[in-house]
Queue: 4 jobs
Job 1
Amino acid sequence: MIRTLHKMGLRSNHMYSAALGSIGMSIASWVVSNKYEAAGIERADRWALFVGEWAPTFFAMGVALRMEEMAQEKGQETPEWQEQSSDIRRPTRAGV
């Protein structure tokens, strides 16, 4: 999925910007909801939390896209997850 997004032109900076925008929108939605709705602070809190929960996902996707970018900078093809799991080497215990 990340490789496909990268091929479509999506970059890590786009995702980092979306995450920061989500944080800003969370604050703005709380202020607007608290000021202009008669539902009270509970509803404002729910709106802010709903929008604010997007930020970690955008940050995680930004990190994954950055890893894809770094792999392409090195001229390497990013291996599939199944191939990576077979390449994992477990550390040996000393004296065993």
Note: The chain has a mean pLDDT of 80.
Job 2
Amino acid sequence: MELDSIYTELISEHSRSTEHKHHLECPNMSLKGRNPSCGDEITLELQVEDGYIKDASFVGIGCAISQASTSIMIDLIKGESVAKARHLANLFLRMIKREELTEDEEEELDEAFALKNISNMPARVKCAVLSWHTLEEAFKEVEGKH
């Protein structure tokens, strides 16, 4: 199956999925991300304990790409260490900026790698990176408090 059809299927599947789309019972990190140019808006909620993301979810509205990218990101970071989540966000953003990734790095991104071709659609890039930037901002905010 070629990347385009995998991409279309993934976007469709994840944008409709409600698995991660709800409020967490007791998040200890919550940050809103907005894309003013198209109206996408998410609130990312994380439960971080002992340096690990025990749980993660989001609520919000937006296009299929922003919703799917957020869902895929949560699949990747849930249960991972904060350091690993930051590493994955860095890889994803590098990929979208068309920086060369190694084969191992591509594999680390798992399903998120299917979003690679969004880098060829400048109008959609902000949609794809909204949740990843929001995740980075949430971690920076916490660092600032410590």
Note: The domain at 3-145 is CATH 3.90.1010.10 (Sufe protein. Chain: A).
Job 3
Amino acid sequence: MNSGQLSKVTGVSQRMIRHYEAIGLMPPPNRRDNGYRDYSPRSVERLRFIANARDLGFSVNEIAALLGLWDDRERASGEVKAIALGHAEDLARKAEALEAMRLTLLELAEGCNGDSRPDCPILAGLAETRQRPARELTRARHKPKEIL
């Protein structure tokens, strides 16, 4: 199957397929005599795996680790579960930070009349010094994970 067909059956753009090959998530495909890429059924499975993992928000490094475990039939499922639970905790921290940002925006909008006057409490609030939810999100993103 060529890259256009692979893209069609997986929903992953040809550009992203080439990107996944370039960063090593997808192995380089065989080439036909005409130079076109030739993907195997296993490539379809692997690309679907990558796309599903990306949809769940896993990072490229996490996907690489998961692919390594997927390829290793001797692996313990506990390793996979630890990665999944660690990622779920990261998502919970990010969700909390996003909710804090949403509430801050609603609070700023609450103080705004939304009329034709030029004074704007939202802009004034954005100019204030305050602890911002975005900082919490950044901290959550870089916080070391505990292995369960």
Note: The first strand starts at residue 30 and ends at 31.
Job 4
Amino acid sequence: MKSILIIFITFLTTTTFAQVKANRNVNDFIPQGFVILEEIKGDLNKDGINDVVLLIKATDKEQFVVDEYRGKLDRNRRGIIILFDKKDSFELALKNLDCFSSEHEDGGVYYAPELAISIKNGNLNISYEHGRYGSWMYVFKAINTDFKLIGYESVYRSNYVFDGITFDETSINFLTKKKLIKEVIKVSSKGKEIYKEFWKKIDVKQLAKLSEIKDFDDIDMSKY
């Protein structure tokens, strides 16, 4: 009887550990046919524990194409999965499997913008870097049961200077419903940019949800 009890307790302990371990494995949240490209950690729900953001990518062989100049390209789209760390397990906070284009898109005369994901001040930053042409960033915050777009930042090569160094800047705060535009009007003899600032109120009926964004390439910020 004692031996049976020991075996039973051992079974329960092993099974419980296996379940906890499974819940702590980020791969358990990856759908079949996807792989993890990058894992980013940071506190997104302000509980003092680092959460996990996964940049994922589909592996459909039908999405491989052959380019005349660049050879074989993987055009599978990329997505994002966000997991809240609950100490003993992970909780799925958000899943959007195909909101990003592949890293092998056609950039025309220049290479396609490079996607980067980071966590800063409790916010999720999704950035696109386009070298000397500029960059832009979407700022999301965990609100209720989704991640909502609360900010947008961009820098673009100025029309005033064409050396790829001086940039105009745009900043949008969707919470305060204000937009700031900084345009370079001249550059001093010491190479310092002289900006003119424009403030504008914007119409925001509701905050965009990360879970509902179908394609970041289609987001139009010029309407604000």
Note: Helices lie at 2-23.
